[in-house]
């Protein structure tokens, strides 16, 4: 995925000329704009350039030669194919392979070259016109639509409308295709349409949208003219029209919109500081210059502007060209763990637009719609958990956990005859866990920096200690908490991460189970406490600091929680007779898969790593591919049955205005389909192979979609793997500033040596985070990341390329080296 900087440059105004169709006169419009700026009056002198990214056909017919002849400025073509056919057809017969990334990188480099040339010329500003080939969705060399190929640059657009019969529809369709991909269409140009009335209609259509339409006289009829007469006529046409009112108005619009975009980016941080209350931010100390402004995002990259300071003149930012306003930064937090299929994914955008157009928002109480049912069926099938039969929708992970706790507590209270309104019913969980910011979800976690100062917080529950999985100095280990070797046993070392999950070899752990039962005996039998649920994140605790819990301990905890006698059952004989092997026992088990589920750890369900099934499972984050808020809480039939009764008050009286909103459900169903395709394809094959998995893709045909569900299931259940290189993980675990490393699926977390011993409040990782973002490498590679105390974590999307991840790994190692050298220098001075 291209990491080229978006095409916003300080001294260069860049516009992309798209056509509503082929043959609408894009090259003539490009020539008129270029010629206008060459001769535009005023103090500013304009340095104009024309770029044709892809050209097919004989050289003498190339558009750049035509523009050079009549516009009188420099031109260039980046990729040429001699055959006069569509680029995707021409590319098939060419020995030269140009990927989309190569094409975009070439164009980005050429724009930077133009910007340097403009900034070096005193009193000059630059204008570069980039003309596409064919229509908006005409295929490029790779076969992808051009609007998708060039989207990483997000150049502002002048759209050439279609003045011919049928042109109204094609122009509006082209505009909407650009809009749905995140382009700014700043103006529409259309040749005279005469009696067809295209111009008049399109003006009225686009006026409410704030997009002006500029009408241009028809191209002179040169049929039957000699070659010289044709050239003379066209020169006369361009001389006249380039100085016309329409072109001056269009030029004025292009300049003003460029200036306005720069102003918006420059003032966004200060406006934000005045009007916005940021999450997880101490506003007493934050400055406007510390606020990143995102202009856009595409693939795995943000397009960022640093505060209000001039890029390249910021003392913190190195190697930034003076003319470059935006630069790409790898989204190393996967946008708070939600990003799975790349920013600006056109399939998800179109899914959202379709559902918005079909439904808008429709209420869900006592009603239904296809997207909600389709998504529910897909989730239940994908989980492969025979206990789960029902799906309840909320709007985010925290509310999804909250409703899951409601479900579990009602079921437990009903079975044991407790009165939850007067008795204190607690939650069992793990130390360091955190399940969300709503009050009920916060109650299910021990006191932490997130909740202990929340005035209503009480913390209703007990949270178990547990052994952790870590890689230290190149070796995987399961380590007990300090001072708890008697309860959990000594440190255990493993040669391979898969050995940690090999329950056939590790077996049940009598020591773990004895510890868990001993704690429960003290709480329940000696202290008389009541518990209504076990809530935990399978394998990895996210917000608590990316803590990798020994999966055998979690499996043991579920086993004990299901067999333990938390109280005498108050069920009738009829109710007891309805219980079966899939009914919950002990206390209901809730798996918080908001972060860990839906392939974040490499599998559809992270609970599958524990080889046990939850009674309630909660999913969000990756559910909609990071596009919309939505959460699904999946429950078993025995949990559902606890809410059946003769009165409405017996029901689960929980809901939101946007419960199961159709747009979110349809996007989520689309996202799941795409994620499952990625899991079946060869996208992850190199990663799995690097981590020692054999057979995936080797015993099937070359067509990715031919992988059967049986092969997929076998591949998923057999090995644990990571998208991050095993050699890199081992190397970084041996660094002197690294305490330990964990990785699984798309997640990498590096715990730095915390010399301050301040734990979660440590700032040990903040300096490394800032260095990766602001102190750019020689090739201007930036990585945006988040930290949790002394832990810096990085997260790939499900479609991240190995090239991108290798670059991120290189940056992390380089910045660790720099940080260590600085610390050593400071220590020597002291």
UniProtKB/TrEMBL annotation:
Q: What is the lineage of its organism?
A: Eukaryota, Fungi, Dikarya, Ascomycota, Pezizomycotina
UniProt keyword Cell division present: no
Q: Which organism is it from?
A: Clohesyomyces aquaticus
Q: Where are the transmembrane segments?
A: none
Q: Name one Pfam family in it.
A: AAA_26
Which biological processes are named by the entry's GO terms?
biotin biosynthetic process
The entry's localization annotation reads:
Mitochondrion
Identification of the protein by name = Pyridoxal phosphate-dependent transferase
Does Transferase show up as a keyword for this record?
yes
Q: Name one GO cellular component term.
A: mitochondrion
